[in-house]
Specification:
heterodimer; A: alpha+beta; Butyryl-CoA Dehydrogenase, subunit A, domain 2; Butyryl-CoA Dehydrogenase, subunit A, domain 3; four-stranded mixed β-sheet; 8 strands; 47% helix; B: alpha+beta; three-stranded antiparallel β-sheet; 9 helices; 11% strand; globular; binds flavin-adenine dinucleotide
């Protein structure tokens, strides 16, 4: 066991840091307050990701057969960490390289691969994830957006909600219902967002412009060839996708960076000598470290070629705890940070407060830990 | 970064498993609060399990793994101080090893008995002596902690100085504390898990009530965190990591000390159930080195000056 990065890993991280230093504008911190899904950042991300692609840093963790460098899970982790603490200059394109690309590669038709993979590897396209619905959040399998097959076309009717990036996305990775079977009645359609009948409405939020939306589908018609995999295969496919993206965003990394910034602000105004503030800061740091080590243990499993399962819910919950602690620390001890004094801490806060909800609620993680890690007898249905 | 066990580590943990098998359950009708075994202790020493830290290819992480593993047993074993702290003071010091803070020698001291090495750590550096009968006051019979404990009546006039800094010993001590707590937390979780899965009320196992499931799931997250932070602290030898590991260990210990007994109802108050062997060790560990606040302040010093 070795908790130090290898020389190669350190060099890789440094290369990314150098690239970011060179390619982010001077006012980047203020700029990134717009939020990763904002029009300003989305536009920036299209150019930035193209540059990353040119320099071999957009998808270096992909296998060589897919045009990547075959660098593996640690490098994917380092890449995610460096991008996320820089305010995620890739915008929504991080999803492309983390799970959409690999999923298309495994389940896509030749036509779909030809059509969609190149724009992803060029850093030129944005996807959105149409899963949640007004009545299907944590209980995703109860989704109702209908897709009826007739004359070689699917006709889609229904509504999605909380869809990040929807306002500016080119394509939607859409979950639809094609039969009444709860899980085996769900089918994935790859839907161009400019298809007639799609209406996107932005929902103003605390977490930045353009972040979350409602998306309405009224007789939206796509050819049968827009289906990914078979009818009813969606649940299996997203389980595979999530295996690539189980840990999600390395939030603990930004949380720790934000904590260090908050401490620096306190030190600057000679306000970091009290025992209460120091102890509280350490508690936050300890929670960040606990989340980091729990997450790294899972990355290691991927490195070892082992299947990653429910233990990632444990790392996810640890991450929620550290995000919560750091957000609370900032509000309690550096309240001015969220009122203009620190764009970086505001940026962190806007991302941090959603940790326990986005991509599966914290309580759902606890349910999974109870059933699958602790193997407690199931709750009655 | 390499976080899986290597072959040597897997092998050592397997050895310990088979060696400690006869000690993995509590002997029937044993009502002693502090369950100990001279025999198990001897076997561990003879097989060199408490000396792995100094061995090439093994090192401190392996020592932490050994300590964690042994702390899962119902028997109290003085392993943490010997395996993780003794090597940086003097690997030849006779066991058991009792670590005490200078100026704070009045509290209950784990494993203190005649012949034990007492290491006093503080401003005057790192000093030790061998305890004899006259220096020791036995604990009252009604001591609740599930460790053998005793009190120091006074210190000898002469203490032997060691050529190691108090900071280094404190760091290693915190790591040892976290590794030991990690094993106890894991064993206690396993034990409560079994109980609530079997015990039925309202026609169903207690474990099917979400209010309890979530508390146990949160305990799993905390336990996992202590495990990894203890190993990390052992691996990096970093003062901040060690202080954070000790802080997390004591926070988790406090939480489960309450929760696990609560979830077991009256059963957890009896001596026929082994739960107290872990929770009442964890309780004493929460007091070690001044408790959470002190580790938090030590971490702040290490992380931000
Ligand atoms: C910033 C952000 C971005 C998002 N982006 C997307 C996106 O791009 N695409 C997409 O499809 N979705 C997206 N989501 C939606 C997200 O996946 C859902 O919010 C999440 O699954 C929870 O669903 P819900 O909001 O409907 O909450 P509900 O399911 O209504 O749950 C509300 C709360 O109830 C509790 N709860 C729910 N079920 C249980 C249970 N079984 N046991 C105990 N407690 C429970 C939890 O505390 C939960 O937070 C996003 C959400 C956020 C916050």
């Amino acid at each position: 066991m070795d908790f130090a990065w290898t020389d190669e890993q350190q060099a890789f991280r440094q290369k990314l840091k150098d690239f970011l230093a060179e390619n982010l504008p001077d006012d980047w911190e203020k700029f990134s307050e717009h939020g990763p899904a904002s029009p300003a950042l989305t536009k920036f991300a299209r150019e930035f990701c193209a540059k990353l692609a040119e320099n071999g840093m957009l998808f270096p963790h992909w296998p060589v057969e897919m045009g990547g460098e075959g660098l593996g899970p640690w490098e994917q982790q380092i890449l995610a960490e460096e991008m996320w603490i820089a305010g995620e200059p890739r915008g929504g394109q991080y999803m492309n390289v983390n799970w959409i690309g690999p999923t298309l590669e495994k389940y896509g038709s030749e036509e779909q691969k030809t059509r969609y993979l190149k724009p992803i590897t060029d850093g030129a396209t944005l996807w959105c994830q149409g899963f949640s619905e007004p009545d299907a959040g944590s209980d995703l399998a109860s989704l109702r957006t209908r897709a009826e097959l007739s004359d070689g076309n699917y006709v889609i009717n229904g509504q999605k909600i909380w869809t990040s990036y929807a306002g500016l996305a080119d394509t939607c990775f859409l979950l639809t219902r094609t039969s009444d079977d709860r899980k085996r009645g769900i089918t994935i359609l790859l839907v161009p967002m400019d298809t007639p009948g799609i209406t996107v409405r932005q929902i103003p939020s605390l977490i930045g412009e353009g972040d979350i939306h409602e998306v309405f589908f009224d007789d939206v018609t796509v050819p049968e060839s827009a289906r990914l995999g078979e009818e009813g295969q969606a649940w299996e496919i997203i389980a595979y996708s999530l295996r690539n993206e189980r840990l999600g965003i390395p939030r603990f990394y930004l949380a720790r960076a934000a904590l260090d910034r908050a401490v620096a602000m306190l030190q600057e105004r000679n306000d970091f000598s009290g025992e209460i503030v120091r102890a509280e800061a350490s508690r936050c740091a300890a929670l960040c470290e606990a989340a980091r080590t729990a997450s790294y243990a899972i990355v290691q499993k991927r490195v070892d070629g082992l299947q990653v399962g429910s233990e990632s819910s444990s790392a996810r919950f640890a991450t929620v705890m550290c995000e919560r602690a750091v957000c609370e620390f900032v509000v309690e001890f550096v309240p001015e940070a969220l009122a203009g004094a620190s764009p970086y801490l505001k940026m962190h806060h806007q991302r941090g407060i959603v940790a326990g909800v986005a991509a599966g609620a914290a309580e759902i993680q606890l349910n999974i830990i109870a059933s699958e890690v602790l193997e407690l007898p199931r709750e009655p249905r | 970064m390499q976080l899986s066990l290597n072959e040597d580590q897997t092998q050592i943990l397997d050895f310990i498993d088979s060696l400690s098998k006869p000690y993995s359950t509590v002997p029937m009708h044993d009502t002693s609060l502090a369950l100990t075994s001279e025999e198990l202790d001897r076997e561990l020493v003879e097989n060199g399990f408490l000396d792995v830290m100094a061995m090439e290819e093994l090192g401190a992480v392996t020592a932490a793994l050994v300590v964690e593993k042994l702390a899962r047993l119902p028997f109290a074993i003085e392993a943490a101080a010997s395996a993780l702290v003794r090597p940086i003071i003097d690997p030849e010091l006779p066991r058991p090893l009792c670590l005490v803070e200078e100026g704070k020698t009045a509290g209950p001291i784990r494993f203190l008995r005649p012949g034990a090495t007492v290491v006093v750590v503080g401003e005057s550096g790192v000093r030790s002596f061998t305890a004899d009968e006259g220096m020791i006051a036995a604990a009252q019979d009604d001591t609740l902690y599930a460790y053998p404990v005793a009190f120091l009546k006074d210190l000898p006039a002469e203490l032997r100085s060691h050529d190691v800094s108090a900071e280094d010993v404190l760091r290693q001590w915190r790591t040892a504390l976290a590794a030991e707590a990690a094993g106890q937390l894991a064993a206690a979780l396993e034990s409560v898990k079994t109980y609530v899965s079997e015990r039925k009320q309202f026609g169903r196992p207690l474990a099917t009530f979400q209010a309890l499931r979530h508390r146990l799931a949160e305990a799993q997250v905390a336990t996992n965190g202590v495990y990894w932070m203890a190993l990390k602290a052992a691996g990096t030898g970093d003062a901040g990591d060690a202080a954070m590991a000790a802080l997390l260990a004591q926070e988790a210990a406090k939480r489960v000390g309450y929760d696990y007994h609560q979830l077991m109802g009256a059963m957890g108050m009896t001596l026929e159930h082994p739960m107290h062997l872990w929770t009442y060790r964890l309780k004493l560990l929460t007091a070690e080195l001044g408790g959470r606040g002190r580790h938090a302040l030590a971490a702040a010093d290490a992380l931000w000056n």
